[in-house]
Amino acid sequence: MTPNQITVVRVAIGFLAVALFAAAHGTASPGVNLLGVALIVGAIALDAVDGYVARRKQLATPLGAQLDILGDRILENLFFTYFAVAGLISLWVPVVFFVRGTATDFLRSLAAASGREGFGRNSMLETWWGRALVASRASRAAYGVLKCVCFCWLGLQLALLSAPGIVGMARAAAAWAPQILLAGRILVVLTVAFCLLRGLPVLWEGRRYLSQLAVPSPRRFPMGAPTR
Q: What is the pTM of this model?
């Protein structure tokens, strides 16, 4: 499979995981929720696989890099939106991810139009700290692991707290419910904080492309054309 095909597959797996969560919601079907958690792990793991395949087979392209980012955005918003609808997290969590992702992707598109794209030397990120926070393998791996743990824990909450028909599990969930919910909130806060932190370099270094848009180009309008 090509890296782009792997990206499409991991997005499809993410949708299947959410479909399983939705099908098991409010029922005594923890096994279905656990299968959804396993699919989350698979979807996140494939994020590393497509990059590895691209580097190993020398198939890395600007389109593939943008498709990989798009896949990340879809999965982040998909999982957080569902968990917000299920009542496990605040609605503001998917809103923050959506706004942050839209803003950074907009700036990346402006940079790409200027010939700066990808994660290599031609990246829009020129500062060492920006590359370290956004483009380094350590940062990307840590962010992927944190998201995986967060999504999986929220999925496990569904399995533990939404199975009233299983007496033993219901008792265990009731006994550990405060700790389970607290751990989930901590993981969500850490994931949101890391998301915003990794977006700061893009926003900071992308400001130069916004300033370019503010200057009217003489080629943009014909002679005598009205301007605002």
A: 0.80
